[in-house]
Amino acid sequence: MALKNDEVLARLQEQLVQTNEELTVLSNTRLKLMGAIDVLMQIENSKVQEEQSEEQEEQEEKVEEGEE
Predict the structure, then answer these.
(1) Distance (Å, rounded) from C-alpha 60 to C-alpha 65?
(2) Per-residue model confidence as pLDDT tens digits over 9-46
(3) Alpha-carbon distance 38 to 50, whole Å?
(4) Strand, helix or coil at 4?
């Protein structure tokens, strides 16, 4: 049984609509993942900076104690 052009066209148009919807969902998911990664990286970086600050303060206190 041969397919008619109008039937094929309708199916292709439906597939395009569905593909565009899936692409939108994937794009939104990608943006959410990127945002979550960015937030977690900022949190981790701030932890490292806090640890470095605390270590530096401890070293400064030791130096000040040694001067006395």
Answers:
(1) 9
(2) 999 999 999 999 999 999 999 999 999 999 999 999 99
(3) 18
(4) coil
